[in-house]
Amino acid sequence: MRRPRTELLFALALSAPLSVLPASATETNSVEVLSFDAAVSQALQRNPNTIVAAEEIKRARALVEQTRSASLPTLTANGSYTRLDNDRVLDKTVIAGANTIAANLTLAIPLIAPARWGQWAHARDNVDLARLSAAEVKRQLAVTVGRTYLSLIAERRVIEATERAVVNARAHANYAHQRFTGGWGTRVDEIRAAQELSTDEAQLEALYAQLVRLQESLGVLLGSDHAVTAADDVVLPTPPPPASAIDDARNLRADVRLSRLRVDTAHHLVRDNWLDYLPSLVGSFQPFYQNPPTLTIPETGWQAQLALTIPLYDGGLRYGLAHERAALESEARAAVAGTVRQAESEVRASQEELRRAAAALTAARDASKQAAEALTLSNLAYQNGASTNIEVIDAERRARDAETTSAVAEDAARQAQLDLLVASGRFPQ
Predict the structure, then answer these.
(1) Cβ count near 21 (within 10 Å)
(2) Domain count, the chain
(3) Cα–Cα distance between 346 and 353 in angstroms, integer?
(4) What are phi and psi of 244, to 5 degrees?
(5) In this structure, is the dihedral angle defined by the CA atoms of residues 93, 99, 105 and 106, taken in order, positive or negative?
(6) What is the CATH number of the domain that holds 59?
(7) Which residue, among 162, 174, 343, has the nearest Cα to 253 in the 3D structure?
(8) Please, is 266 exposed, middle or buried when counting C-beta atoms within 10 Å of its C-beta (0-12, 13-18, 19+)?
(9) Alpha-carbon distance 54 to 39, whole Å?
(10) Is the per-residue pLDDT at 141 higher than 80?
(11) Closest to 192 in 3D by CA, of 2, 382, 23
């Protein structure tokens, strides 16, 4: 028996106030909202990993200063006071006073120091390595921030879909209750509708908790003391065309450039092995003062010296260093080949992933629209007595799942676009 139209309208009016979203559905005011570009920029400035990477550059420069000092002149001042029990006298001449004060300045100048000069040059190479290592740290951080940011947007889309499912389930539960109390429905229908509402509410609470966790994670990545959330939407840069994406990956990616620089640095060490076999020449000049003077040392004077050092035998140390440097160069060349191969593979995979994700997003959006229409028709059929609430509950679940799938597909498309930008070296800029 069909329910009169006036009673249907009355039941729908009763259910209308229940469509208002709960207060917990909105994000709290204490959460900072940042745009995508602002979030990445703040992370690159305030994240501890980037700060450490910047300090490592300073440390590499400090090591250059330390290494360079061995190739530059040094000037030292020395002074001494000596107390003897008595003057030392030879043929009535004092050869060592009981109280002796001596002072001198020593200037040492490395005139020929090939090994030290090579170490200085290699230390400068390490500064370049530190710079590119910092760039790679920033790249990895930006990727993590970008993916977390996009996940936040997707999480909110899923929450919105689940909130709508809760609204629909609450309206249906209210309608089933009205039918039962009015003598038109069954207790089974009421319990089924209430169970579906409870299930949707439980899922919504779990999604809220996950949203907070993502917000806190983004805040930590950005170096903030509070949670940070994403803006309503984000527009990513256009990915490069397939023809140039692989070339961009070879030339723009920080990890590829870092691997190549490691090869160059290792090669410089091998190239400069011969410096370890060259002699070194150090000149020194020393003015001095001594009171009282002695037979061999006047009160004032100076002395100059040239010291030539020729390494003849060191127990095989230089051969061992040469073999170690050659092995390190071979390792670096193997590593750069693997890094380039991995970068090219990521570009190809990301291009295919983006194409598939775009097609999946179109299909998911169509499915969501169709599921929403099916839910509307199921509600009308149930209200007119043409079906049971099992069909309505099934339609509600399918609509919720389809809208969730659409949100997930939208996130997958964004993530695929970001992956292609990262793989080609276009992100971060």
Answers:
(1) 13
(2) 1
(3) 10
(4) -105, -5
(5) positive
(6) 1.20.1600.10
(7) 343
(8) buried
(9) 19
(10) yes
(11) 382
Domain around 183: 5-72+119-280+319-423
- 51 inside domain: yes
Identify each DSSP E strand in 22-69 by its residue range. Answer: 32-34
Taking Cα atoms as reference points, which of 306, 253, 301 lies closest to residue 143? 253
In a domain, 267, yes or no: yes
Kindly give the pairing relationship between strand 228-230 and strand 32-34. Answer: parallel
Sheet with 300-309, edge to edge strand ranges: 74-83, 99-112, 280-291, 300-309
Rounded Cα distance between 25 and 165, Å, is: 13
d(CA 281, CA 283): 7
What pLDDT sits at residue 20?
Answer: 37
β-strands 280-291, 300-309 pairing: antiparallel
Cβ atoms within 10 Å, residue 359:
12
Number of neighbouring beta carbons within 10 Å of residue 293: 16
Q: What is the pLDDT of residue 29?
A: 54
What pLDDT sits at residue 21? Answer: 43
Is 169 inside any structural domain?
yes
Which ranges constitute the DSSP H helices of 182-226? 187-221
Quote the pTM value: 0.83
Query: In this structure, is residue 372 part of a structural domain?
Result: yes
Q: Give burial (CB, 10 Å; 0-12/13-18/19+) of 203.
A: middle
